[in-house]
Amino acid sequence: MKRIIFLRHAKSTHNETGLADFNRPLNGRGIEEALAAGAWLKQNKIKPQTLYSSLAIRCLHTSTIVMQVLKIKYDNLFAAGDLYETSKEHIIKTIKQTENKKYYTVMQS
């Protein structure tokens, strides 16, 4: 059985003029939130085997911070352009097409 963890990206910056939504990085608070999310997962003994992330900068940054905290290898991260602003139906389809592993994390923007 697949267990899916939906993790929203951490707080990103909004004050950089001219920066497209897709390219917004995490701010200081966002980095702290990502570290806290990773610590919570670790404390609760939840270690995703595969992470799916939107290619949006804030999603990738959040994912890599969580992976560092949990000591997950980066080759377990699948960054997909089609997860950015996608439908729940597409996310469900993506999940259904994956192998059966214990935990997945989907990071979507």
Could you walk me through the main structural features you see in this protein, from its secondary elements to its overall organization?
The chain is of the alpha/beta class and 109 residues long. The chain has one domain: Rossmann fold (3-Layer(aba) Sandwich), CATH 3.40.50.1240. The chain is built from three helices and four strands. Strands 1-4-2-3 form a four-stranded parallel beta sheet, covered by helices on one side.
Features:
109 residues; alpha/beta; 4 strands; 4-stranded parallel beta sheet; Rossmann fold; 3 helices; single chain
What Rg do the Cα atoms give? 14 Å
Q: Give the strand order of the largest sheet, numbering strands 1, 2, ... along the chain.
A: 1-4-2-3
**Total strand segments:** 4
Largest sheet descriptor: 4 strands, parallel
> CATH superfamily membership, which one?
Phosphoglycerate mutase-like
Output the number of helix runs.
3
What characteristic shape results from the CA principal axes?
A: globular
CATH fold naming: Rossmann fold
Number of folding domains?
1
Average per-residue pLDDT, rounded, comes to: 83
